[in-house]
Write a structure and sequence with these properties.
Blueprint lengths: L8 E4 L1 H4 L19 H10 L3 E4 L3 E3 L6 E7 L6 H13 L3 E6 L9 H9 L28 E2 L2 E5 L6 H18 L3 E4 L7 H14 L4 E4 L17 E2 L2 H12 L3 H13 L9 E3 L8 H4 L6 H10 L3 E5 L33 H15 L2 H4 L2 E6 L3 E6 L2 E6 L5 E5 L5 E3 L5 E2 L1 E2 L2 E6 L4 E6 L3
Parallel strand pairs: 1-2, 1-12, 2-5, 5-8, 8-9, 9-10, 11-12
Antiparallel strand pairs: 3-4, 6-7, 13-14, 14-15, 15-21, 16-20, 17-18, 17-21, 19-20
Helix pairs in contact: 5-6, 7-8, 10-11
Length: 440
Amino acid sequence: MAWYEDAVFYHIYPLGLLGAPEYNEHYAPVHRLRDLREWVFHMKDCGFNALYLGPCFSSGSHGYDTADYRMVDERLGDNDDLKELVHLCHEEGIRVILDGVFNHTGRGFFAFRDLEEYREDSRFRNWYCNVDFQGNNSYDDGFSYETWGGHDLLPKLNLYDPEVRNYHFDTVRFWISEFDIDGIRLDAADVLEQSFMRDLRGLTGSLKEDFWLMGEVIHGEYGRWVNENTLHSVTNYALHKALYSGHNDRNYFEIAHTIRRQREMGLGDDVHLYVFVDNHDVERIMTKLNDRRHYLPVHVLLYTLPGIPSVYYGSEFGIEGRKENGSDAPLRPQLSLESADMQDNDCLRIIRMLGDIYKREPALRYGEYRERELTTTKYAFTRGDLLVTVTNSDQEEYFDIGLEGEYEGALHGKRISPDNGRLRFTLEGNSAEVWIPALR
């Protein structure tokens, strides 16, 4: 099996976690990446075996306005720092993927600077989409261009241009040879040109066995991106939304329906979508939940429903984060493992237990998913020979499931036995359990 089918991801936004300045003055490198060493051991302690780190390369501000694809952001350090970090991760059994921001650049990128200076005579004018020297933009350049999301800071690249493609492909070759990374998360994959992603899949597969391509996709038919020719995985935003709103609304039908629909789309047990409850773009799960007790059932579902689970740095401690005045900064805070908020607590214990269960039970990676019982307030399903039960109500819930054999709860230690071929038991309100066959 490929490494990513066994992966449990930890997601770090390094510019935030490491307290980098908001804007890059492009001074001498400050070696903040070296401070991630202690986080590598924290990851391992929590059961994470893969790191999504990004963005890492030189930019003007938040990291997605790339200025240099082949130089680590000066606010984080230099290329040797990233090389050493990846090497340490590999020594500790942790794979590493980086952000690939290939849809657009920042205005500090060499091709855009050339366009600003030489305008119609720039040899890079075709590197960008819909450049119009009769127009203008918010920077008063005297020309307009297509952007990502309407942000003039992010001019959109023309991925049909062979030079642009070859530049990106050479960058990927450099990342693999220089840093030995294991995969790429493609930023804005839902607007990337499809043939570019297919060519990238062919290239990376030829360069490194089991190299993983995961795309950021918000909406749409995920099978358009996830197939044997394009990407291995995409961000499962549909399930992300269902996981918290299914608890806030006390409606497990939303979660179960999301799983059903994705399976009807051909995204079955052999397709490993990237599952998360929060990230650098959305509010923290503890902020989104109306009832903090739902942290347990939400994360049990994160680790047990089909997909590759991912936890965003700090959320294993239950920290909160809400967008303020349109800013994502509160979602991307500087943290220290030595601070009072980063000590052992119930949330961290839950993540550690789930990491241990996930490692011990291959059925959570490969076992067939089968829905067993469903109401608005209780949900039961099997993954192979494991039974998972969750509740979102304040009252205990009664389960009546057609299964043979005795089971033991991996979280709470309770044992249940069948009665005439059925498991009949109660589960405490706002709770969850992963039931493991007592006799194997």
